[in-house]
Amino acid sequence: MLVLGISDLDHDTAAALVGAEGPIAAIEEEKLSRSASAGLPQLAIDRCLAEAKVQLSSLSMVGVACRPKRGWLRDEGGQWNAFAPTNGNLGVRGSQDELLWKLGQLRTFRSLAGPAVPVVNFEHHLCHAASAFCPAGFDRALVLTLDQCGDMWSGLLAIGEGGRLKALRPMRFPNSLGWFYSRVTELLGFRPGRDEHKVQWMSKEGSPNFVPVFRKLFSHGPDGLPVLNLQCVATGRNGSATFIPEIVRELGIADPSSVHQGRLRADIARSAQEFVEETVTELAETWRLRTGATNLAVAGGLFLNVMLARALEKCTGFERIFVQPVAGNPGCALGAAYLARQRVKPDGGRQPLSHLYFGPRLDEEEIKAVLDNCKTIYRYLPSERQLLDETVRLLQDDKIVAWCQGRLEFGHRALGNRSIVASPFSPFVTENLNRYVKRREDFHPFGLSVPAEDAGALFDCTSNCRFMSSIGNIKAGPKELERFGFNDGAARVHVVERQVNPRFWSLLRKFGESSPAPVLVNTSFNLFGEPLVCDPRDAVRSFYCSGIDALVLGNFLVVKP
């Protein structure tokens, strides 16, 4: 039994193939096309099918994470068009043109699949919920999803029990914390829908002076759900909804250009972050008490915010919390596949998510062909011992190393297969990575990868740090690790399990033999504005277009002179 899941067609599209034992393949379209994606993720679909060596016609079912007609009807004549972002293709979400476009995409796909393969549409937020609950490993849990807008909902509360999901309360758009966070992103001069993570990291430099201002934007309904105060919303210059001038002035912004300078920007970011954390933790706690649930599973684009995930772990009464690591739109593909599998096999099992290595795998012959074609000088290291010894030697010499191995990660976080690594004990490592490799602002923190056996002694962190979907706290270890901390010792921690990624685990342990701790700085292997590198050609191009010193590509080693 094989089922295919396809994400919402709006943006960041993806496909996922799931069998009786769990996910087999999953990848985002943009990692293959190397450009922003919308519409049917045909490249991702083809790659998932190729991974399992099957044809589209042999699938048991296909699930799609959107119900276009229902979403369009919920828009009540397009009254919320000003609130919705463009999808990059047709303009405003909820418009009749986009409805017809989506229906045309689905009609084309159904003709490709043929009459023998059922294609079923599921609610966008139900797919988010399934992507969180099905791989969480909980028998019963409260499920909370939050994003900007999907099928004209901005969130969903549900109960997962016995392999089934029961919707409790939808959150109707525009009552959207995701919309709020995107508007703050835009207000601070970043790209809404792309740079929300920058607001999160900028917030650690500021003070929460404007939380009372942001509280004016939302009230709480009888169910504890946030309700947007429409009196605080106006139409901006580009015709989209934004904050009224009074709110902007209360944020201390006299001139729109002034917010791009100085401490004010960080204070607004910190206030928005604390407001969202406060609102979401109160909502989760209210429904914990109503349902008696001891576990929580969350998904939706808002939960890509790892500081929000940590707030849920620290400030609510749940015994266990699972944060779907691919919480945004691509994760809906996985949720749609889970729901489709349930339709095909109602008593199908639910396996906890152990890893995210569901993308294309590196091929040694392809690597060699690309390196030869690029006239690259390289070494082939046939044994793992040689490979580890040479890599550690480079790291000890303060070199920045691109570590590209095995199958590509699903999601945007590098978890040791498409990573850039460096020694945390190297001077100026964060400055060099931010300025000469990542080409981004200095307020971005880096992940610290550590073997699971050593994590407890060095960091206070939860199981969500296996996927870098939460943060931890530095509690011991060499003094050099403290410079990677923020907000009183918080740090981005990546816990590496030997059975999940044995080669990266071995690199960490080998590095620890000659270093103060088995810890490496870990950031994603990609150029600025691009997705994770996928194949050998992407890796070589990104290597030579950045300040990376060495590339470990499978068993091949390339070192810049």
Structure overview:
The protein has 561 residues and is of the alpha+beta class. The chain folds into three domains: 2-135 and 328-344, Nucleotidyltransferase, domain 5; 146-323, 2-Layer Sandwich (Nucleotidyltransferase, domain 5); 364-559, Alpha-Beta Complex (DHBP synthase). Strands 15-24-23-16-17-22-18-21-20-19 form a ten-stranded mixed beta sheet, with helices on both faces. A five-stranded mixed beta sheet has the order 3-2-1-4-5. The protein has a five-stranded mixed beta sheet with strand order 8-7-6-13-14, with helices on both faces. Helix 5 packs across helix 12, helix 10 (262-291) packs across helix 11 (306-315) and helix 14 packs across helix 17 (502-513). It starts with a strand and ends with a strand. 52% of the residues are buried.
Q: Structural class of the helices, strands and pairings?
A: alpha+beta
Rg over CA atoms? 23 Å
Number of strands: 24
In the CATH classification, which architecture of the largest domain applies? Alpha-Beta Complex
Name the helicity range: 25-40%
What distance separates the N and C termini? 51 Å
Largest sheet entry: 10 strands, mixed
- For the record, the CATH class of the largest domain is Alpha Beta
Strand portion, in percent?
A: 15-25%
The global form is globular
Spatial order of strands in the largest sheet: 15-24-23-16-17-22-18-21-20-19
What are the SSEs and their pairings?
Blueprint: E1 2-6, E2 14-19, E3 22-28, H1 29-33, H2 42-52, E4 61-64, H3 68-74, H4 96-113, E5 119-121, H5 124-133, E6 140-150, E7 153-161, E8 164-172, H6 177-187, H7 196-202, H8 211-215, E9 218-220, E10 226-228, E11 233-235, E12 241-243, H9 245-250, H10 262-291, E13 295-299, H11 306-315, E14 320-323, H12 329-344, H13 364-373, E15 379-380, H14 384-396, E16 401-404, E17 418-422, H15 429-437, E18 447-451, H16 452-458, E19 459-460, E20 472-474, E21 490-496, H17 502-513, E22 520-524, H18 536-544, E23 550-553, E24 556-559
Parallel strand pairs: 1-4, 4-5, 6-13, 13-14, 16-23, 18-21
Antiparallel strand pairs: 1-2, 2-3, 6-7, 7-8, 9-10, 11-12, 15-24, 16-17, 17-22, 18-22, 19-20, 20-21, 23-24
